[in-house]
Structure formats: C-alpha cells, structure tokens
Specification:
5 helices, flat, single chain, alpha+beta, 14% strand, Herpes Virus-1
Length: 214
C-alpha cells in the first residue's frame, strides 16, 4: 500500500500543467488544489502567479475585493493567508482589521502620521480626543489637530472671519488690477506701467516678450 502511494506521488510530480498567467509548464504541485473553498475547478494559476495576483489586486481594488483569477469567487481571510505573500497578507490583515474597528460606534483613529492607533471616545467626553498611544490631541468635530485656547464654536467663528477676510482681499486685489493694469494681448497677464514711455514689454513668461502700447 505504501509503495503504491509513493508511486502515485512520483507520477503526480511528473504531470505538467500550463499556468494560464505566465504560460510556463509546471509540475502539478506548483498549483494549489483549490484557490477558495467555493471553487469547483482545479486551479489554472500557479502559486507564484497567484501570490503576485493577490498583491496587485489588493493595491488596485482593496482588501475586500480579492477574487479567484480563474472563476471570480471571493477569497476569505484564510484563503488570502494561505496564498498571499507574507507582506501582502500583513497589509490585508491591517486593512481588514481597520475596517472592522471603524464600524464600532464612537471609535476614532489617531490622526498623527505613523501612529496607527485608535480608541473609543464617547460623546460625553467632549470633542477633545487624546491618543493613549502617542498623546496627540485632536478635535473629533473638525477631524484635525486640537484648537488650543478655543472652543469649537470660537474656532468656527475665527475660520469664518478669516475666510471672509480672504475673500474681501481677493476681490479688492482684482478690483485694483482692473483699475491699475491692462492685460497683455498675447498671454493675458496683467501689466502695470510704472514709468517711462508708453511702450510696454510683457515679462510675465520667458515665451512672451510681446510689445504693446499702454
């Protein structure tokens, strides 16, 4: 019985199959028996190409859209762990875990680059979020660094004031340009005369040296 089993294994090793991706002829052992638990076909993609496929699909489509390259069946967690490169699986595990945690009510991620931590912050704790890992402070109302010395209402009021001032300054600048400059007939850049004769040379760009009369 043992001898027959060994002979069967040797025969299986000698069987060649062509990979649908790289088109190389490989031994049957170079192919997974099934890529997902739902697949009803033998795999036409070798293990190396399958691992590369999963890496590409993770970057292009996201962690929750990984599928069998042969039939399109979705890969579950264990299938990805079995067939993906270690680095790819670690990235997949990180993304899937992050997605699961994000569905928890009142769960917030730390916004500091490189921290990667998160925690539950109840509404009763107010808008100030203090990361227990890196001690960074953020406002969960505005989703940005904490506005020291200001309540959320005061912060909003200041931002509106700054936005209105910026808009007024922009309008005043445009009005001044219209009153004190003319547009270059070639590139439409505003030209201002600051003395001399009426002949003007546009110097806005190296490609535009047009002469005009102011």
């Amino acid at each position: 019985m043992q001898k027959a089993y060994e002979e069967w294994n040797r025969a299986l090793v000698n069987v060649k199959q062509t990979c649908a991706v790289c088109t190389d002829d490989r031994g049957r052992s170079a192919f997974p028996s099934r890529i997902t638990v739902k697949c009803k076909h033998k795999s036409n993609t070798c293990r190396a190409c399958l691992s590369q496929w999963l890496s590409s699909e993770l970057e292009l489509k996201g962690w929750d859209r990984l599928t069998c390259p042969d039939c399109g069946e979705s890969l579950d967690y264990n299938s990805v762990k079995k067939h993906a490169f270690q680095e790819t699986f670690q990235r997949y595990d990180q993304l899937s875990t992050r997605a699961a945690l994000s569905t928890i009510p009142n769960f917030h991620w730390c916004l500091k680059p490189g921290c990667g931590s998160g925690q539950i912050h109840e509404d009763s704790e107010g808008p100030l979020f203090l990361c227990t890992t890196c001690q960074s402070r953020f406002c969960i109302v505005h989703n940005e660094p904490w506005h020291d010395g200001e309540t959320c209402a005061q912060y909003d009021k200041r931002r509106r004031y700054q936005a209105n001032n910026s808009m007024r300054d922009e309008k005043a600048s445009e009005k001044w340009k219209k009153s004190n400059s003319r547009l270059c007939p070639m590139c439409c850049a505003p030209i201002q005369k600051n003395g001399g004769c009426s002949a003007m040379h546009c110097g806005f760009a190296a490609r535009c040296r047009v002469k005009s009369v102011y």
